[in-house]
Design brief:
single chain, 7 strands, elongated
């Protein structure tokens, strides 16, 4: 949000408060700017995917296009996913202990891996590894396949821990990644390096024979 101009931020906040959308005239009046200025901001925000055209509506007796906040625009506003996730993990850890939490996270990886398997159908070796890396990058892991040395198999390295703060509080959460990638590769994995444990990346290496 900070990368946008002040007027564009104000415009997005107005659309956040008016879920049914606002017309150019209504936005111009609320912002205290001209219609051309509003149209210019809307064009830029629509191009970036932050706003979208809504239903046509009558404004001052004439039909007008309403604009609404798009899903990408809604995502610009702060969310408390990490806080809520932390509450859930704390509750499970209190009830089952850290080992129980790790087991719960491993079980959680099962249905998720199953849902992703169709995208890996028929792929083996390097092609399968590349597809798994692509899946991880869709989830913002900033992952890459790195070749092995000294006879070691290729590994997957992630430079972004997508739940780093949660993992610092509950290291057992790393078991989710290990379990998920093990199921996707079809092989046990070694978690060689971990950012939560002070590493520069998270590195997961399949057993030989992948």
């Amino acid at each position: 949000m900070e990368l946008l101009g002040k007027r564009q931020q104000e415009l997005l906040r107005l659309l956040l408060k008016h879920k049914a959308g606002l017309s150019i005239d209504e936005l111009a009046t609320a912002l205290g700017v001209t219609r051309p200025a509003v149209r210019q901001h809307l064009t830029a925000l629509e191009l970036d995917g932050y706003v979208a055209k809504g239903e046509e509506r009558r404004t001052a007796g004439r039909p007008g296009q309403a604009y609404v906040l798009a899903a990408k625009g809604t995502d610009l506003f702060p969310k408390q996913y990490s806080w809520f996730s932390s509450l859930l993990l704390d509750a499970i850890a209190r009830e089952r202990g850290e080992e129980g939490l790790a087991a719960w996270l491993e079980d959680l990886a099962g249905p998720i891996a199953e849902s992703l398997q169709p995208r890996l159908e028929g792929l083996t070796g390097e092609a399968r590894l590349a597809a798994i890396v692509a899946l991880m990058n869709e989830l913002a892991y900033e992952a890459a396949a790195v070749p092995g040395t000294g006879g070691a198999p290729a590994a997957i390295e992630a430079s972004n821990c997508v739940y780093h703060e949660l993992a610092k509080r509950h290291p057992a959460i790393c078991q989710f990644d290990v379990a998920l990638l093990s199921r996707l590769t079809g092989l046990p994995l070694t978690h060689e390096e971990c950012m939560v444990r002070g590493g520069g990346v998270c590195r997961f290496r399949p057993t030989p024979g992948f």
